[in-house]
Design a protein that fits this description.
Tetracycline Repressor, domain 2; DNA-binding; homodimer; mainly alpha; 219 residues; globular; Arc Repressor Mutant, subunit A
Chain lengths: 219, 219
DNA sequence: GTCTATAATGAGATAGAC
DNA sequence: GTCTATCTCATTATAGAC
């Protein structure tokens, strides 16, 4: 008996059909979690939207919590990669400014989430939930803290003399604004009494963050 | 038969004991809703914390949603009053500056929520939930929009020429930062790798907001 | 991998005694 | 006003046929 053939726990590679089903389930979970939050979302809703039976959701996603974590993780790697790549490119050009570092952090997120793709739009609301709730602290730490620390180092370079605490606080304020720009545009519309232009909002959010960052880290 | 004696639906004034029980239930609901969010919170948890039976929670609070709305409403009036009073006092002095208007909006909230009172601390997290979730849009509109519009008018005075859309967006960014300062201090601590000083955080948040506001509303 | 059927649990809400 | 007991419903998760 050949041991090699048994060394992998999974005997066969997943079929193409299986992978497609899994993606449908993850996409559906992303939409439902984003629309209702973790607790109000039900496996039944997710299964119905994916067009499968509830048992299949458990088969592919495990428990409800594991499914939630998997949905968050799925796009987190792509996002972190885009952010650090942009920062690396900026540093390679030798043209590192505060605004440049800010844009390397915000644009990979805003471009995707405001770009109209339903998956990324849902992901934006999902991240707003994750960031706001202490309960998902572990998920937030795992997926976002490493990148955040890389950017804190970059911010420290362009804003020498600023304390870690102030840089961290400014970054958190900026992120909360970025998330509210994606998840709470209805509030902006309600208060301004009119629709708004996405490009203008992004532009002024960047202005807001840059000026705030620069002012806040001063002693 | 005297019609007068029946014109009120509630025949007797609530007893002192009843009012105390009601307050205990509302306080417990405030804590549980803040700790777990609306859906993960249960009437049973609230009843247990208040030291009463579940049926009594329904008696005083009505449905779960009505109880949630009542808990939010309870402190909202006091907060709005403090904000508009501070603004009125500032205007009476004739010393209206951007930073002054910002402080009239943020300090009544931050003083209470960061002041150590458990009820107000819970309320801060609760408002973070309400502001982030489309589901509570009606509650947010009812309790916060009127005050927000008063302040938008004041911001327009100290920042003439700014569009309503930009002022509204800047206010939303500021509010989201204020809420994350209360609800997500653990993120700041995690990223900075150290504890932080509350006064310093408030100071630099105000700096951040003032500079952001001023810069963002420029064309 | 996919499905049906169901187990096991816990939820919000209410009726009615006191 | 308060409590006990219970109703009704929806949930996650799993067992086992195909």
């Amino acid at each position: 008996m050949n041991v090699i053939t048994e060394q992998k726990q999974r005997q066969r590679a997943p079929s193409k059909r299986s992978l497609e089903t899994r993606m449908r389930i993850f996409d559906a979970a992303e939409q439902i979690f984003a629309a209702h939050g973790f607790d109000a979302a039900t496996i039944r809703d997710i299964a119905a939207l994916a067009g499968v039976q509830g048992a299949l959701v458990h088969h592919h996603g495990g428990s409800k919590e594991a499914l939630f974590a998997a949905v968050v993780a799925r796009r987190a790697a792509a996002l972190s990669g885009a952010r650090t790549a942009a920062l690396t490119a900026l540093q390679a050009k030798g043209d590192v400014t505060l605004r440049g570092v800010i844009c390397c952090f915000t644009h990979p997120f805003l471009d995707r989430v405001l770009g109209g793709d339903p998956g990324w739009m849902a992901y934006g609301r999902l991240i707003a939930y994750v960031s706001a709730d202490d309960r998902w602290r572990a998920i937030a730490s795992q997926h976002f803290d490493p990148t955040a620390k890389v950017f804190l180092a970059a911010f420290a370079q362009v804003l020498p003399g600023a304390s870690q605490a102030r840089l961290a606080a400014a970054l958190v304020y900026m992120v909360s604004g970025m998330l509210s720009l994606c998840a709470s545009r209805w509030r902006i519309d309600d208060l301004s009494g009119q629709g708004d232009d996405t490009e203008d909002l992004v532009q002024m959010f960047t202005d807001f963050s840059e000026a705030g960052f620069r002012r806040a880290v001063q002693g």
